[in-house]
Amino acid sequence: MTTETLVVLIAVAVVILGGGLAYLIAKPRRELPPPDVMDELTEREIEHPELREVDLDEVEELEAGVLEEEPAAPAAPTLERPETPQGRLARLRSRLSRSQTSLGRGLLSLLGGGDLTEDQWEEIEDTLLAADVGVGPTTELVTNLRARLAAEGVKDPERAKAVLRDELLGLVGPSLDRTMHTTGDDNLPGVVLVVGVNGTGKTTTVGRLARVLVAEDRSVLLGAADTFRAAAADQLETWGARVGVPTVRSHEGADPASVGFETVKQGIADGVDVVLVDTAGRLHTKSGLMDELGKVKRVIEKQAPVTEVLLVIDATTGQNGLTQARVFGEVVDVTGIVLTKLDGTAKGGIVIAVQRELGVPVKYVGLGEGPDDLAPFDPADFVDALLEA
Ligand SMILES: Nc1nc2c(ncn2[C@@H]2O[C@H](COP(=O)(O)OP(=O)(O)OP(=O)(O)O)[C@@H](O)[C@H]2O)c(=O)[nH]1
User: Fold this and answer.
1) Ligand 1 pocket: which of 367, 369, 372 to mutate (most atoms <8 Å of CB)?
2) Which of 99, 204, 338 gets mutated to test ligand 1 (max ligand atoms within 8 A of its CB)?
3) Atom number in ligand 1 closest to CA 204
4) What DSSP state is assigned to residue 189?
5) Atom of ligand 1 nearest to the CA of 367
6) Among the ranges given (78-82, 83-87, 100-104, 382-386), the one the predictor scored with the smallest mean pLDDT
7) What is its EC class (predicted)?
8) Domains of the chain (ranges, CATH numbers)
9) Which pLDDT tens digit goes with each residue over 215-242?
10) What is the mean pLDDT of the chain?
11) pLDDT band at 321, cuts 50/70/90?
């Protein structure tokens, strides 16, 4: 071999080796699979990639987000578990006494000092009237109190307080039937019609009553027969949804009687225990609308008897609340009263006045803005809270 041939051979070898090296450097390196895939690879598979069951291209696509993830199933709504009604008044009692202090303190301070002068008896009367007890019940209470304190020769403030408690309790009516009638006859649902002026807390009350019933393991259906305002139906639906209770509703301006009818019809078909129907109470002075309320009840009763008509009254409206009570009482047979916003007034005597006015018992009281701040009314607890001050 000549020297020239040797030089040519060396040059060819250098070119080949250089090209190979350049190819190796330029070749994209395959990354190691991510750690979780690594976990699945055995040592043998790492040494012999051809044996791998995991396709690295697929892994890369996954990394690049090419393969779409399975959409997550929608989370089931978490239902609230409402508080049982039994313990509620105990929890809310302080709100009652807070709102009643002027009445309780006023009476006790006067009665604590032995024999009363005429002026002091007048002061007692004024205190009762200022607390919205009403003229008739106030006169009755003062007359009875005077007679008993004199007859029993009461001088001791503790004894005077006990007599006052007894007399107040007598006025509140400890033996009135305060059960809410929610059981229908012949396998029909109980039907509760909730009426009252707008803004008194009617829709809130329907929502809260649904919670009371759910806490007692009763099945419930709501009817949004307040069709004046779409928002009222939305509000009701939201209340129900929180505790898994459905709502029957229609469009704004629909006939409230037909919504009531459809709700009870569905309640019967679904076999629910109780149907609660919210109604519109706008402009209670307009006879047309009040007639309409009467119609709602009549039409509902083509399906099933109404077992309870609850009138919602705002305790802070005083005498105006009594006027409302009177008007509603003329249109539908009110069977129970729900007194809302009792936490916001010192005029707790309205309980006594409104019962007298309608001859119907207060069955529930609203004592706050929380979802379970509606308590069954208990006369003894009420009077005790009144005199706690
Ligand atoms: N402090 C207090 N507020 C209450 C009570 N009950 C209801 N409310 C409030 O009163 C306001 C009116 O309640 P709604 O239920 O909307 O009154 P409504 O009578 O149904 O009026 P519409 O829905 O407009 O028909 C709301 O802000 C409630 O939170 C209560 O017992 N105490």
Assistant:
1) 369
2) 204
3) 15
4) B
5) 31
6) 100-104
7) hydrolase
8) 3-63 (no CATH), 89-172 (1.20.120.140), 190-378 (3.40.50.300)
9) 999 999 999 998 888 899 999 999 999 9
10) 81
11) confident
CA–centroid distance, 218 to ligand 1, in Å, is: 24
Between the CA of 209 and the centroid of ligand 1 the distance, in Å, is 13
Burial readout 283-305 (b: 16 or more C-beta within 10 A, e: otherwise): ebeeeebbebbeebbebbeebbe
| Nearest-atom index, ligand 1, CA of 373 | 31
Find out whether the beta carbon of 208 lies less than 6 Å from any atom of ligand 1.
no
Q: Which helix (H) or strand (E) holds 314?
A: strand 308-314
Q: Alpha-carbon distance 263 to 343, whole Å?
A: 33
Distance spanning both ends of the chain, measured CA to CA: 126
247-248 sheet: strands from edge to edge: 247-248, 220-225, 274-279, 190-195, 308-314, 336-340, 362-366, 374-376
